[in-house]
Amino acid sequence: TTPAEIPADSYDKIKTSGRYVYDELLQKVCKADNRYQAYYRYLQSIWRTKMNLPVKKLDGQKDGDVYGNYIAVDRGNFMTDAIQELAEYEMANKGDRLINEDRMLHNLLSSQPLCFNLFGELKINPVKALQFFNILYDNYFSSIDNIEFEYNPGRCDARLTGDRSAFDVFVEFTSTEGKRGFIGIEVKYSETLYEGRDEVKRTLEKQYCGENRTRRDRYIELSEGLFKSNSINALVTLPYFQIWRDHLLAVSMLRAFPDKYDEGLFLFLAPYGNKLCRDGANKYVDLLQKQEGLDSHFCRAWLEDYITTLDAVFDAEWTKNMKERYLGYNQ
User: What pTM was estimated for this model as a whole?
Assistant: First the structure.
């Protein structure tokens, strides 16, 4: 079943005289938000109000002067105590991982805490994790062996993409056929895939790991056999660029670690209701030479399906709250 579109009139209902309007909820509107960003920011503002979480303000600011998706306390962004504890552990032991503590703790809209809310309890409960992924992927797995966050096995490693790209979530598994594999996941929520436009050219032109070539050269090398002819001209532009880099990280891992992994892919996960992310992922698939899935090492998925499956597996108050908080579902 295809997840539902955001209602066409939701934007007009959300924006009135520069403020969010929802019963007693009055929060500042971000003028740069598109329809989808406004909707998801709005959902987080509703959630904050429902949970009685204090809005984050500077001295002298009133509620209506700040965005409603920011909270002033260090607890409240995570759906269970266990997820909170896991997030605190990961922040305390982040090493060189790009885990932004302020976003994790205080920004309800951020996709980084969403990663923990989606996969934290699954990391803690491998039996539930196996059930979850087998519902989504037709009983393909015999075990889910590990789940990590903000994962790259070797940042700036010349065997890989030679940059600091990382998967938001990394899942290692064993298939029912005994194959060892992984799923590297990028999670989007309100993003557009057009962020970082000014960084694209600089990233491509950087020297690759001290060699006499650029990162662009390495990306093109890793792309051989994966895409239709002349696709590179599109891949080096937005909205494809970040998807491409993460996809190539998965490809490079398979080539670098053949003794560890028999198969693997990069999975792009976003709300179906976020049309910009959905269109970007769909257009990316059109560039592939091989079929979406293990053949191309790339796959799309929709947040609505993942959260609904999470609720089916746990059937708990917190999973029903996930549906309400992130998707606007009432049940």
Answer: 0.93
